[in-house]
Every structure is written in structure tokens, then in C-alpha cells.
Amino acid sequence: MGVSPLTEIKVADLGPRKLSSALMGPIDQIVAEALARRPDVLSAYAAHEASLARLRAAQAEFMPKVFLSATGSHSSNTLDVSTLPSLGQGASQAPSTLNVPGTHYGATVLLGITVPIYDGGLRRALEGQARASEAKTDAMLEQIRDEASREVVAAANRVRTSLSALDAAEALASATQITFDAALDAYRHGVGSITDTTRAETALLEAQNASTDAYSAARSSAATLALAAGTLGASPE
């Protein structure tokens, strides 16, 4: 288990607890809650959902694709041109400068559609592969659900049986307690024998031991049901 051998294990004290068949809920509700909680069922469900997504993606490759594209541009420039000096009068004047500024804006919007025509059967093969994967994960999910349901139902039946056995053992212990009390009282008043008292005491001890064993079996079967339902380790209700 990967636990250090120096680990100190503390066993919790369960203490006495009254058990009865009234603590058991409807089996359909127990199974439904277990299927919604068990990690193996959730993992199989996630794998099935992933295969469905891959199948939808493969089927989408057969559909036309619509695309929209847009671009924008902006340019700014300035051209400075110096004029040549004039001859004759005013030749000493400095040449003038000609400024030619320019700013331009542009935009392009493209709307198009692509239609798949021929790909040599590649898309059809990918779709078939996705369908096979979806069918496989669906069958696996159903198998895991069925196995989980059988485990929960079997564990719940064992709990009901053990609780019925516990009720019978407690009833027997109560009856033998009354018998022992009557035999002891008769012996104390001189109307009963020590043999009858000892026999009643032995029967009482056996009934008490049987009740203890039935109680332990009921707690063990309840733990098995908690494991099958995915609630083992949670706080007891």
C-alpha cells in the first residue's frame, strides 16, 4: 500500500449503535445514487462523452464551412520638394519648398464558404472509426453500470438479511433472558433446581453470543454496501 511500517494506526471506536431494517432506503434509490457517485461509472461516462464529441467532430467535416475575414490599413506620408532658384531678378531669394502631404485609409472584408468535394474517403473512414469508438465506450458504460448495479443490489440484500438475522438474534436473547430470570428466581425461592438455572444461563450466553455475531455481521455487510455504493470513507449519517 506504500504506507510506512512506522505508521501508527488508530482504530476508531464504533460504539454501540441500534441497527434495524428501517435504516435501509429503497433499493432503487440506493442504486441510482451509487451510479451517480462511483468513480468507475463516472470514468466510463466521461469516456463515452469524449467519444461522442469525436463523432460529432468527424461528422462536422462533411458540412460546408463559412468564414469571414476583415483587414484595415492606414498610411500617412509627406513629400517635401525644394524648387529651383529663379534666374534674373530675385535670384538672390532662397528657393521655396513644396510640401505634398498624403493620408490614406483602406479596408477589406471577405465573406466566403468552403464545400468539401472529394478527399479519397478519408473523412468517411474517420467517421467510421469515431462510430466504432462511440459504440465501444457505450457498451463499456452499460457493462460497468450493470456490474455496479449487481454489486449494490447483492450488498443491499446481504444487509437486509443480516438485519433480519440480528432482529431474530436479539429477540432470542431477550426471550432467554426472561427464561433465565425466571429460573434464577425460582431457584432462590426453593422451587427450582440448580440444573434448570444452569441450563437457562447457558442458553442465555449462547443467545447473547449469537446476537453479538449477528450485530458484527450486520456492520460488516453495511461496510460492504458502503464500498459498493461509493460512500466508504464518508462521514456516517
What can be said about this structure in brief?
The chain has 237 residues and is an alpha+beta fold.
Describe this structure in words.
The mean pLDDT is 85. The longest helix is centred in the middle third of the chain and has 67 residues. The chain is α+β, with helices and mostly antiparallel strands and 237 residues long. It starts with 26 loop residues before the first helix and ends in an 8-residue tail after the last helix. The chain is built from four helices and two strands, in the order H-H-E-E-H-H. The protein has a two-stranded antiparallel sheet. It has a domain of 156 residues: Up-down Bundle (Outer membrane efflux proteins (OEP)).
Keywords:
two-stranded antiparallel ribbon, 57% helix, 2 strands, alpha+beta, single chain, 237 residues, Outer membrane efflux proteins (OEP)
